[in-house]
C-alpha cells in the first residue's frame, strides 16, 4: 500500500475539512469509551489482570526464541507447516508459492492486519488471484478501494448512506428498488453475497490474535463468524501472524483474553474465540486439508532489546485510538499507513522508518489517555518521546525548528538569563498586541496563528506574579 | 529460504535478549517449566461460587450476550424442547446434527422433526450441537470439532441449538482448559475448539450492534439436569 505518512500534516488538513469523515468519527467516542469503562468496572480483577498480562508478555518476549521453537514443533506435529518470513516481500512470495501449488483462483479472508502490512490484496490481484474480504467492515472498504482506518473497526470512517451507495454500485444484479435504508438490510445483503464465497475459496486466510506454544494453536477472536467460516470452509487455511503473537500456554492466553475484549469493544468475551490446531483430522468431516502459518518478522526482532521493546506487547485491541483526541479529530487514514492512533505512532516509525513516519509521534497532545487504557500497560507517550528525540538526533526536522529548539534549550539551561529575557519580552509583547490583546500573526509561529489567535501575555511573568501573590516567599532564585 | 530465515530470526532474538550459553540452560528450564506446569494466573472471583449460583451466573451472562436459555430435566425432554423452539420461531421442523452418541440416542419419534446428520452444506436453517462445557464467568459455550459435532454446524445455520449438561458448567475458563487437557492430553487439542458467547454480530456500520452477521442469528442453549450432579468434574486449580 502507498505510504502517505510523510504528508501527515496535509492529510490532517484534508481530514478536518471532510464533512463525511467528521460525521463518521463521532461514532468512535460514543461507540467505545463508555463500553470499555463499564466492562472494566464490572471486573474487580481487571487491573490485576492487566499487570499479569504485561508480565506474561514480558516473560514471553524474553524467551521468544524458545517459545517459537516449541510452537513450530507442535504445529508440525499436528500436520501443519510454519514458514518464516523476513519481510513483507518474503511473506508475499511464500503465500504465492502456496497459492500456485494449490492452483488457487479465489482467496477468502478473515480480518488480518498483517495482510495489510504486507499488502497482500494488491499483490494477489497482480497475480490473477481474487481476494475476497469477508469481515463486513473489510468488505465495505474493499468495495471502496480503501484501507482500514481502525484496527478493529476498519470501516469506522464510512457512514451508512455511503455503504448503501457502494452496495448499489457493486451488487448490480440485485433489484435496484430494494430498500437499503436500515443497517440490518445492508448486513443481510453482505451476508448473502459472502456466504457463497466461503466454500468456493481455494484458500482461506486469517490473522491470529495469539499463537500458543504449548499446543501449536492459532487463535482468532471475532464477533461476526466470518473468520471461522473462512478458515473452516477454505480448502487450505493460511494464518498470517507476526512473531510477537506467541503465547506460552492456554492459561496465559486465558489471562490476556480477559483484558482483550473488554478493552476493545467492552464485551466480556467476544462472540467467537476459536482455537485452531493443524489441518482436518481423520475424525473430522469438515475443516481445511492444509494448514500453514506464515510467521512474519518485518523488523520486530530488531525492536527487542531497544526502548521500543514494550510495543511488542501490543495485542491490537484499539483502545489507545478509541481514547485518543488526535485520532478522534483526524481519523485513521491521516496516519498514512496500516496502524493508526497512538500504537501506530509508535509502531509505524519502527516498521517503515522514522524518516517517513516522523510526524506521527508528534501527533500527540501527551494527554496520556492511551497509556491509561492500554491493557498491556504500554508506555505509549514515553515511546513517542523517544521517537521525537531520535527524529531530532537524526536531523530530520526543518532547520527553523532545530534552530528554535536549540535557542530555547540554550535559555532553558540558564534560568537567570531566561527570566531576565522573559521579564523584558512579556511587557514588550503586551505593548505590541495593543488593545485586542491577541496576535493574529506572529513571525515563525504561523503553525499556531493560521488556526487561532495567539493570546498576548498580561505583562508580568508567571514567576513574578507568583512571587507577588504571597505564595512565593521570595524564593525566586 | 525459510529455514535460513528461521535461523536468522531466532539468532536476532537471542542476541537481543542477551541469551548467552552461560544462562541458556536456565532460560530453557524456565520455558520447559511453564509449558509443563501451566500456571493459572488470576482467576476472577465471580465464578468461584457453589454449583447452583454458578449455573445462574452462566444463564445470566449468556442472556446478556443475547443467547436464549431453557432448562430441561433430562435427555428425554430434549426433542420436545427443540420442537417447541422451532414452532415458536416459525422455523421448518428440520435440524442438522452430528453423530454425538448423546444426540443419536435422542428419540424424536414423538415430534414431527426431520433429523439429518453430518456437517452443514450451508442450506440448513437450524443445527443442533452438544457442548463440551460452559463457562459461567462469561456465559460462554465450549464446543470441539470432530464427527460428533462438526464445526460447520456452529457457524453456517441461522439458528444454532446447543445442549449442555448443567454439571458441565465450570466457573472459569481455566477449569475448562484443565478438562480439555485431561481429555485430550497435555499439549494436545482437537483441531478446533470454539468458545462461543452469544449469536454472531457486527457493529461495522456506524457502530450499531446488529445480530446475525455471518454466523447464526440466534443461539439457543438447552441446559440439562441439575448443577453439581452427573459428569465428574476436574478440580479447577
UniProtKB/TrEMBL annotation, chain A:
Signal peptide: none annotated. Gene3D superfamilies: Alpha-helical ferredoxin, NagB/RpiA/CoA transferase-like. Residues 305-335 form the 4Fe-4S ferredoxin-type domain. Keywords: 4Fe-4S, Electron transport, Iron, Iron-sulfur, Metal-binding, Repeat, Transport. It holds the Pfam family LUD_dom. InterPro entries: 4Fe4S_Fe-S-bd, 4Fe4S_Fe_S_CS, FTHF_cligase-like_sf, Helical_ferredxn, LUD_dom, LutB/LldF, NagB/RpiA_transferase-like. It comes from the Bacteria. This is Iron-sulfur cluster-binding protein. The lineage of its organism: Bacteria, Pseudomonadati, Pseudomonadota, Alphaproteobacteria, Hyphomicrobiales.
From TrEMBL, chain B:
It holds the Pfam family LUD_dom. Residues 127-224 form the LUD domain. InterPro entries: FTHF_cligase-like_sf, LUD_dom, NagB/RpiA_transferase-like. Gene3D superfamilies: NagB/RpiA/CoA transferase-like. This is Lactate utilization protein. It comes from Jiella flava. The lineage of its organism: Bacteria, Pseudomonadati, Pseudomonadota, Alphaproteobacteria, Hyphomicrobiales.
